[in-house]
């Protein structure tokens, strides 16, 4: 447990949707103590003013640069964590950042997809527990994966990262549908009820910021990808959830049963990945830290269809962040999450 008797944790940017989900999980966690909740525009308000369903009676505070807790979660808009993390790390704090500020190793790709510059050395351990468990265990600061990236990487990793003699991935065409909470809490006309009810639309086609994150994690890059990759994100009138369909072209046919067994073997030690016999549904994973995966079809031409489902606020954000904290502290990674 890295010398902590009962670590204290605080959240900077706690008043947004991911921050509220994180507050709920940390408040019931049996082995850490929720210390402070920092917010900016909401400072001075109580948690129950914003989220009456939260069984947490705390007041949001303004962050002034002083941080006394052992562990810091940051749930801030992209660009803000870059300003705060260096001082937190220099103060010896354990840091878990939920933004995209530290995910990408390539500063040029960060500028291209996030629209802002960052230092070349502004990277932290990329914390996807199913792929980088040991690296996370030895880290003191980690970058939490994005929600779309989580759903897509977990759906592709067994086929791309596991050495295979029989088939390799030539192209991936994926489409993902996200709930509206994935866009954050800031009021936007295009996300209002009258615009989104009975509606669905694509956005950031082929330029979503999770694209380089996905490709980097799968051993290639958005600049020079080793396989064809297209990603079409969509938004639908759901509160939470991400539903992803991956159309994969292999250079050789593999039967569904063989691919399914490959996925089961790859995730045999992953407590939050469930390989399903039937297509998953958002309702199956809502309010949980699970990622459900189903190998739906494989054609004689090498085509494969894989479907994944996660809760964007839990496995796609707060739940995975707590899973990473558990690993960093040497706890059971499922502690407080089941």
From TrEMBL:
Domain Semialdehyde dehydrogenase NAD-binding: 8-139
Physiological role: Catalyzes the NADPH-dependent reduction of N-acetyl-5-glutamyl phosphate to yield N-acetyl-L-glutamate 5-semialdehyde.
Uppermost EC category: oxidoreductase
Alphabetical list of PROSITE patterns matching this protein: ARGC
InterPro entries, A to Z: AGPR, AGPR_AS, AGPR_dimerisation_dom, AGPR_type-1, NAD(P)-bd_dom_sf, Semialdehyde_DH_NAD-bd
Active site (record annotation): 147
Listed GO CC annotations: cytoplasm
Family of the protein in this entry: Belongs to the NAGSA dehydrogenase family. Type 1 subfamily.
Pfam families for the chain: Semialdhyde_dh, Semialdhyde_dhC_1
Molecular function, one GO term: N-acetyl-gamma-glutamyl-phosphate reductase activity
Localization, UniProt: Cytoplasm
Pathway of action: Amino-acid biosynthesis; L-arginine biosynthesis; N(2)-acetyl-L-ornithine from L-glutamate: step 3/4
Protein name in the entry: N-acetyl-gamma-glutamyl-phosphate reductase
Catalytic activity: N-acetyl-L-glutamate 5-semialdehyde + phosphate + NADP(+) = N-acetyl-L-glutamyl 5-phosphate + NADPH + H(+)
Enzyme Commission number: 1.2.1.38
Biological processes per GO annotation: L-arginine biosynthetic process
Top-rank taxon: Bacteria
Keywords assigned: Amino-acid biosynthesis, Arginine biosynthesis, Cytoplasm, NADP, Oxidoreductase
